[in-house]
Specification:
The chain is 0% helix and 33% strand.
């Protein structure tokens, strides 16, 4: 079976060597830079920015005006909400101490890594280098300054774990020694600082 070709709105700005997977849609005024690789069935919203060499897995949704700076690596099924920002500079400066403008050789880019199934709420800021764990949920407006464990629900400035979520994104409830999804009935157990789905 042959998949559907990628769709790019005429107002979008894509460099020549961008790789778009089958069924991926790029909407109005989005910009995707050189060497970026997007998987199948992704949706890139209006005005979103995908930096050079950024990698997105399959079935990702990057909402309007999100800024995904290089060298971010994003897994499958990741939701990046409206106006989310992934930073890439630990010590940002526009100029060197001698007043000369900083160039590409004057800093070392660090990235945000997002594992499969994670969701990042509107206007959240992820301060690189940081890893967002699989199936975790970053609340809208949070500022993530350290790694987020798998299935963690984090909120605040700086973001802290305030609960656990299952694969459908619903907060889990504690029952005896396990965590249970109220929607699916899936059961999880704590595994170090993360959760693990019980088969």
């Amino acid at each position: 079976m042959t998949g559907t070709a990628a769709t790019v709105h005429p107002s979008a700005d894509l460099d020549d060597d961008v790789d778009l997977g089958e069924g991926t849609r790029v909407w109005h005024l989005a910009q995707i830079r050189a060497g970026a690789r997007l998987g199948a069935d992704c949706n890139i919203g209006r005005g979103a920015y995908i930096g050079p060499g950024v990698v997105l897995g399959d079935a990702c949704k990057v909402q309007n005006y999100a800024l995904v700076y290089e060298p971010a690596v994003v897994g499958d099924g990741v939701f990046i909400g409206p106006a989310v920002v992934f930073t890439n500079d630990e010590f940002p400066r526009a100029a060197n101490p001698d007043g000369t403008a900083k160039g590409a050789d004057d800093w070392h880019a660090v990235g945000v890594t997002v594992e499969d199934g994670a969701s990042i709420g509107a206007r959240a800021v992820c301060i690189a280098p940081v890893r967002i764990g699989a199936w975790s949920l970053v609340a809208a407006g949070a500022v993530v300054t350290r790694d987020v464990p798998a299935h963690a629900l984090v909120a605040g400035v700086p973001a802290k774990r305030v609960g656990w979520v299952g694969r459908v994104g619903r907060p889990l409830t504690a029952e005896d020694d396990v965590w249970v999804c109220p929607e699916t009935g899936e059961r999880y157990t704590e595994d170090g600082d993360a959760l693990r789905l019980l088969e």
